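Give me the fold.
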Amino acid sequence: MEHQYKIEKTVRYFTHGNADSAKNVWIVLHGYGQLPYYFIRKFESLDPNENFVIAPEGMHRFYLEGTSGRVGASWMTKEARLDDIEDNISYLDMLAKDLLNKRKYERKILLGFSQGGATATRWHESGNFNADIFVLWASVFPPDLDFDPNQSSLMKSQNYFVLGKNDPYFKGKESEVKKLFKSQDFNFKIIDFDGNHEIDKKPLIEILGD
């Protein structure tokens, strides 16, 4: 018989930029098998006096190969997934509240990369961050979400879908995925860039400039 037990857990997050001078605050969620220590370096091209970037870590760390060596993190797996979804939303709500309660920013930006896109979408819909700009980067909507256009947070945010032209995970599916986002009622702007499954600074600058 399965049982559950709530515990406290220590989580990590990394930051870039000046929290006091920044006009924009970013919360960026890494992909499967990544660590935020490395992931946040992709955002160092942003002006640190204008942008404060927060990169939380998924709560599940593991060895990428075998039982030693490089370590990565994940937001969830198929095992006890509903519990992990609930825990992720609570974790991100608490983190955002603690870090943002001292001042208001002109723009709040939520970016989910790859696997982090599913967690970002669920949090945008069910959490308390209330992003002004929402970015799905090399990611699609989690299939379990049933959006109500009359109540969805996506109706209140400026939305972007970003994809590298040579992303191997979307090879042969680019047109189909872009058509999906264009057919939505949520007014996604699609941004292409010359690259692979990675964060590129040009789309970041374009998002800020719109």
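The chain has one domain: 13-209.
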